[in-house]
Amino acid sequence: MESEREDAVQPKPITCKAAVTDIVVHPPKEGEVRIKILYAALCHTDEFSRSGADPEAKFPCVLGHEATAVVESVGKGVSTCAVGDFVIPCFMPECFAEDVQARTCGMCEGYEKLKTHLCGKIRQFTAQGVMAADGKPRFSLKADGSPVYHFMGTSAFSEYTVCHQESVAVIPRDAPPEKVCLLGCGVATGLGAVWNTANVEEGSTVAVFGLGCVGLACVQAAQRRGAREVLAIDKNEKKFDLARHLGATKCINPAEYGDRPIQDVIVELTNGGVDYAFECVGNQHLIRASLECTHKGWGVGTVVGVCAKEVSTRPFNLILGRTWKGSAFGGWRPRTQVPQLVQKYLDGEIKLDEFISHRMTLSEVNEAIRLLHLGDGIRTVLKVTAD
After folding, report:
1. pLDDT exceeds 60 at position 243
2. With a threshold of 0.90, does the pTM exceed it?
3. In the record, which residues are listed under signal peptide (predicted)?
């Protein structure tokens, strides 16, 4: 009788819509969480992977990694959340203290010393599109039962998905899900690149290349830090008004300077270069410019945009004291710090509403991709299952 009662409450497979087809989402195994996606936003990285430029993307897969959700069921041993919790699934996991102490991966020592937020324990599986419990995905095609892989450990373009418990951040129930979903990647990434990775100081000069969601979040973060000058660089002047609203002191269209390298323009405008620069496009030429536009002796260029090509600069640019950095998810430890960012939004300390330019449904995801290619708008938020 006891076993019958247990079987009665065991999670069952769920058939649902995943963007353009029907899939079966299987129950969570040990350490896993099955969640119902409420809203998901389209990020450039989704399209980067869909295009085939991402060598790690494994197909067929369910894309999407910037979302809000509610926990539908949990597997054995889950301690980070409970059924009914509102959550943000995070592509960057935050491991447990006991795993760090046990040195479960090569990142643990640096993680413990606060040198990194990267977790290799879960990453080795999410990079393959599978779950850690058994090395298999929790998705299959409804039509023939063939496997469908996960994307970045989240797969938010599905009505339901399964995540590792290390990748689920519980958020306040009063947070508007259609807005705070942006803290699953775009806005959080830009804020953290400025506040954590580069650690911009008050009175600094800053240049931001690319005024998409991440770049505009960098502009906002620099303004919040008290930067004296914030240069916003983009060929699309439609984005300049919002950049100024978020804190840009000067907007620059590189096309106005012909063939002249934009880094030379910035060096001239800023009496030798800016203190900090952020590349948020994923263009190898702008990545180089983000280093070379900084001041010799102390300038820091931070690469945030995803790029499939190799980049280069003359070694002398580094020998003269500049630093090149990279920033993944802004250096945040998501289970702990994403809820703090949500609270900052609720307290009026950061802006999110202004980043949402389009609202659509999951069935319109291809139109959202088309708008992304046109550079029309900042973020498209897709209604997935929310009433």
Report:
1. yes
2. yes
3. none
